[in-house]
Design brief:
The chain is of the alpha+beta class and 478 residues long. It has a single domain, classed as tRNA-splicing ligase RtcB. It contains 14 helices and 19 strands. Strands 7, 8, 9, 11, 15, 16, 18 and 19 form an eight-stranded mixed β-sheet that branches. Strands 1-2-3-4-5-13-12 form a seven-stranded mixed β-sheet, sandwiched between helices. Strands 6-10 form a two-stranded antiparallel sheet. It is globular. The mean pLDDT is 96. One of its GO terms (biological process) is RNA repair.
């Protein structure tokens, strides 16, 4: 089953289809504009969308978001749901190695004009307080084995209860801060060892803490419900489950790959290794993945608290949580498919859940407006706050960011560290605190698609609506 660009059929200017062929059980659907699709190397991207469409139990379509790019097995920006009651499978490749990588947005009681006089001092303090980089180093560096178990079971709830936080920190975090079906016992000793050294840290790559300002509102009543106003200073944190999540994915890909023959499962790409959700292998992965998701939520809670401490000490203002949402996760959800309500395992890899107004999983104060969706831009560009909409396609999913256009190696060759710093600091006035020169150039804005176009296409495709645009004032990079 070879898929070529000629197989891509334009249904609308923002929706393309790949018809079923070969072993595909459902069609492929890509939400994008022509300009967002890569001019070269489109074939392997379409092939990944088609390969996902062969997964046992998949329903409706193999979906891809406007920020789609090549990933491990699944494309990044991929969404797929399998029927739990009809042989549906769960695939670690459909979640990725950074389990529950996500975004946390906090709003300050501070205006943009008041940030300038303290910008340097504030960014220096954040740079000292926020651990980052590929190795160990953490806000909570001495976590014991029993405390780690409690975090894997309780996520952000455990951190709020035992290390401080507010009720809003849990109300405005998906799942109230924790997956209840997580099992610390499903996490390997190697994964635990990595997790004990990194709890409360950004990591490296495209992870960051960014101080931003609300530049524009597109829906003022919804923005007000979210706690946002024009000119307000905010803090956006993008990170995940660090080495613990990576190790869990590594462990489970190997174990599930070995088990596929026993389950009678065949896939066109071993990176799509999967197991029936109701099998022992499927349940074990779901339990371990949920534990990693809880770790990620605890991680962002700790980093948010550290940022709040810095703001309080330097500006005398506090930070309040707008929302915390993952974009690398598989979860059991109920959706209507062809007139029937089904229990589905929805994989979102580089895609964000976008619950509509009235959804029962929303906190009470957001029931009338829908769920906040947090879309980080590339370094130096705008970020966005979106909201879920009624009738949203792809099981209420939307994009998760700008989407990588160049590899890290290509990005590093495209601009020098000096030129990038000059662009960001002197030309754009952004305070930059990077862990390494190489890390900065690998995440240059030119390495990514235009986040404004990605968001516009997502809205025009009916996946979400735009609420606010934020611009960077300062960034702490891994």
């Amino acid at each position: 089953m070879r898929i070529s660009p000629s197989a891509l059929i334009a249904e609308t200017p923002f929706r393309f289809r790949i018809d079923r062929s070969g072993a595909m059980l459902v069609p492929g659907v890509i939400f994008a504009s022509r300009s967002l699709l890569p001019e070269t190397n489109l074939d392997p991207l379409l092939q990944q969308v088609a390969n996902v469409a062969t997964l046992p139990g998949i329903v409706e379509a193999s979906y891809a978001m406007p920020d789609i790019h090549l990933g491990y097995g699944f494309p990044i920006g991929g969404v797929a749901a399998t029927d739990v009651r009809d042989g549906g499978v769960i695939s670690p490749g459909g979640v990725g190695f950074d389990i529950s990588c996500g975004v946390r947005l906090l709003a300050a009681d501070l205006d943009r004009q008041d940030f300038g006089p303290v910008a340097g001092k504030l960014m220096d303090a954040l740079s000292k307080r926020i651990p980052r980089g590929a190795g160990p180093g953490a806000v909570w560096p001495d976590v014991s084995g029993s405390e780690l178990d409690a975090v894997l079971r309780g996520g952000a709830r455990h951190v709020v209860e035992h290390r401080g936080g507010s009720a809003l920190d849990l109300d405005r975090c998906e799942d109230g801060g924790a997956f209840d079906d997580a099992d610390a016992g499903a996490v390997s000793e190697q994964a635990r060892a990595r997790g004990m050294r990194q709890l409360g840290s950004l990591g490296s790559g495209n992870h960051f803490l960014e101080v931003q300002a609300v530049a524009e509102l597109f829906d003022e009543p919804v923005a007000k419900a979210f706690g946002l106003r024009v000119g307000q200073v905010c803090v956006m944190i993008h990170c995940g489950s660090r080495g613990l999540g990576h190790q869990i994915c590594t462990d489970e890909v190997r174990a599930i790959d070995r088990s596929m023959a026993r389950h009678g499962v065949r896939v066109p790409d071993r990176q799509l290794a999967c197991a029936p959700i109701d099998s022992g292998d499927g349940r074990r992965y779901l339990a371990a993945m949920s534990a990693a998701a809880n770790y990620a939520r605890a991680n962002r809670q700790l980093l948010g608290s550290s940022a709040s401490d810095v703001f309080r000490s330097i500006t005398g203002t506090k930070l309040e949580l707008v929302y915390d949402i993952s974009h690398n996760l598989a979860r059991i959800e109920r959706h209507e498919v062809v007139g029937h309500t089904l229990e589905l395992c929805v994989h979102r890899k580089g895609a964000t859940r976008a619950l509509p107004p009235g959804h029962p999983d929303l906190p009470t104060d957001l029931a009338d407006v829908g769920q906040p969706v947090l879309i980080p831009g590339s370094m130096g560009t705008s970020s966005y706050v979106l909201a879920g909409v009624r009738g949203g396609a792809a099981f209420h999913s939307t994009c998760h960011g700008a989407g990588r256009r160049l590899s890290r190696h290509q990005a590093a060759r495209s601009v020098s560290p000096k030129a990038l710093r000059d662009q960001l600091e002197r030309q754009q006035g952004i305070q930059v605190r990077g862990a390494s020169a190489r890390g900065l150039v690998e995440e240059a804005p030119s390495a990514y698609k235009d986040v404004c176009e990605v968001v516009a296409v997502a809205e025009q495709a009916g996946l979400c609506r735009t609420v606010a645009r934020l611009v960077p004032l300062g960034v702490v990079k891994g």
